[in-house]
Write a structure and sequence with these properties.
The chain is of the alpha/beta class and 353 residues long. 31% of the residues lie in helices and 12% in strands. The strands form 2 sheets. A 7-stranded mixed sheet has the order 2-3-6-7-8-9-10. Strands 1-5-4 form a 3-stranded mixed sheet. The two termini are 26 Å apart. 44% of the residues are buried. Keywords: Iron, Iron-sulfur, Metal-binding. InterPro entries: Elp3/MiaA/NifB-like_rSAM (IPR006638), MJ0683-like (IPR040086), rSAM (IPR007197), rSAM_sf (IPR058240). This is Rv2578c family radical SAM protein.
Length: 353
């Protein structure tokens, strides 16, 4: 694995990352790897602790996303979403984009200290920073490593705007920190929830919290005055795009107090495309013709299909009393700034979903 020289020393031990009842078939914990190199393609689930060199990453301008800076305390994600676009990033570490992405989690143990150092650099201009746009900062390993409280506290202390996108219920642990940060700077929190369908969740997002638990996160953030928008994503062709499914999801999100809903249809990049196709071939071969038709020209289905799904979601929002004529929450336009000390190279992600 690349980054072997940045690994920290540690004894081989089981980490207390047990799943709550009701979750899917994810692993109950991670182990620390032994002293040798981490090999790709093994069944072992490990937390690979590294000392990162930089932590605030600049997103290339050509990526077309509404943010320019990101923080990713983890690489890989135990949510194990079959469709995750970030899977390909694991190949940059000489690990595979399939099971290794789900089970070999790189942990940047010095993330909090690095954030403080880079925010304090004279060249940092205080631009908004997005988190959760590559892998989830509130995945299960966060319960053990507690990197996000240090990161949020550092952003709060510098009054630096930031956004967080997550499927994880662990964000509620940091509710008071989020409230404190929101008093001094713009803070945007969003939950990713594409469907309420339990079978789809268990099959396609086996390590992520159940849809009902994510709805509760939306509700509790709203009640706490932080507010929470929802990325209704990804909407999966043939699995969660039926009009009645979209209606049910929108109704539940509005009832939970979502401040806005952004519907996004599944797109399949290299890395995710192969992994998702393998799952379809095994579990839903009946849908292969549909996907071959929709994705034969690239990562995105035809615009006519996407527009139809979005319009059905917007119509459902209006039926349930949610305005659709205002911009979605989050940082849509980001001013430029100089790179932080030692950073500013390639970004870890290229798109939100």
């Amino acid at each position: 694995m690349r980054w072997e020289k940045q690994r920290t020393a540690g004894a081989h031990q089981r980490l207390p990352l047990d799943l709550d009842e009701g979750r899917g078939g994810g692993r109950a914990g991670l182990a620390e790897p032994g002293p040798g190199p981490v090999a790709a393609g093994t069944d072992e689930a490990v937390a690979i602790e590294v000392q990162a060199k930089t932590i605030i990453n600049r997103v290339p301008g050509e990526s077309g996303v509404p943010f320019r800076w990101t923080i990713n305390p983890y690489r890989g994600c135990s949510h194990a979403c079959r469709y995750c676009f970030a899977r390909r990033t694991h190949t940059y570490l000489d690990l595979d984009s399939g099971r290794d992405f789900d089970s070999k989690i790189v942990v940047k143990v010095n993330a909090g200290a690095l954030v403080r150092r880079e925010l304090a650099h004279p060249r940092w201009a205080g631009d908004p920073i997005a988190m959760g746009t590559n892998t989830d900062p509130y995945q299960r390993a966060e319960g053990r490593y507690r990197l996000m409280p240090e990161i949020i506290a550092a952003l709060r202390d510098r009054a630096n705007p930031f956004s967080v996108l997550t499927k994880g219920t662990l964000i509620l642990r940091d509710l008071e920190l989020l409230r404190q940060a929101a008093r001094v700077a713009p803070v945007s929190v969003a939950v990713s929830l594409g469907s309420l369908h339990e079978r789809v969740w268990r099959e396609v997002e086996p390590g992520a919290p159940a849809p009902g638990r994510r709805l509760d996160v939306v509700r509790r953030l709203t009640e706490a005055g932080v507010g929470c928008s929802v990325m209704m994503a990804p909407i999966l062709p043939g699995l969660s795009d039926a009009p009645e499914q979209l209606e049910e999801t929108v109704a539940a999100l509005v009832a939970a107090g979502a401040t806005s809903i952004t519907p996004l249809v599944l797109h399949l990049r290299p890395g995710a495309r192969e992994w998702y196709h393998a799952w379809l071939s095994e579990r839903r071969p009946d849908l292969l013709p549909l996907y071959e038709r929709l994705y034969r020209h690239g990562a995105h289905p035809p615009k006519s299909y996407r527009d139809g799904v979005v319009e059905r979601v917007r119509a459902a929002q209006r039926r349930h009393g949610m305005r659709t004529d205002r911009p979605d929450d989050g940082f849509r336009l980001v001013a430029g700034s100089a790179a932080p000390a030692g950073g500013g190279g390639g970004a870890d992600q290229l798109a939100l979903l």
